[in-house]
Design a protein that fits this description.
single chain, 153 residues, mainly beta, Immunoglobulin-like, ten-stranded mixed β-sheet, 12% helix, 50% strand, globular
C-alpha cells in the first residue's frame, strides 16, 4: 500500500506538468524558419561583415525581425541598401516585417544584417552562432557558415 501511494505521489505531478505544457507546435519560434543563411568572409583588416538568409513565416500572422546578436561582433544591426538619387546608400532599419505565409530575403544589395566591430577574424568554412530576435516569435539561435564572396547566394 505504501509503495503504490509513493508511486502515485510521484506520477501525478509529472503527468500534471506534461499535460499542461504547451505542445511543441505552439512554440512561437516554430513559426519562423531560417534557410540558406551565410556570413560573408572579409579580409583580416576589415571590422564589419554581413549576414544573409531567407526568413520564412509559417504563421498567418505578421512578425518582425527586430535584432540579432553574435559573439563575434560588438553590434548587429538590420540594414538596407537604398537608391537615393544616383547613389546607393546603406540605411539602418529598426525592424523588418515578415508577413504571414511569406518569405523575406536578406541578401546582397538589399536587406541584410551588419556585424559591426568584429572581435576576431572569420574564415570560409567556419560556423558562427547567431541569435535572431523577433517581435512576436521566440528568439531563434542558429549556426551560420562563413562563406567567401564567390560562394554567397
Amino acid at each position: 500500500m505504501k509503495k503504490s501511494y509513493l508511486q502515485f505521489a510521484f506520477i501525478f505531478p509529472v503527468l500534471f506538468i506534461l499535460l499542461n505544457c504547451p505542445d511543441k507546435s505552439d512554440i512561437s519560434s516554430s513559426r519562423i524558419q531560417i534557410n540558406r543563411a551565410s556570413i560573408l568572409e572579409v579580409a583580416p583588416v576589415q571590422t564589419t561583415t554581413a549576414a544573409f538568409m531567407e526568413i520564412e513565416n509559417h504563421s498567418s500572422d505578421e512578425d518582425f525581425l527586430i535584432g540579432a546578436e553574435t559573439e563575434i561582433a560588438e553590434v548587429c544591426e538590420i540594414h538596407e541598401m537604398v537608391n537615393e538619387g544616383e547613389m546607393m546608400r546603406m540605411k539602418k532599419r529598426d525592424s523588418v516585417a515578415i508577413p504571414g505565409g511569406e518569405t523575406v530575403l536578406l541578401r546582397r544589395g538589399g536587406l541584410h544584417l551588419m556585424l559591426i566591430d568584429l572581435k576576431r577574424e572569420i574564415h570560409d568554412g567556419e560556423v558562427i552562432p547567431l541569435k535572431l530576435k523577433f517581435k512576436n516569435a521566440e528568439d531563434i539561435q542558429i549556426k551560420i557558415p562563413v562563406k567567401s564572396f564567390d560562394k554567397i547566394n
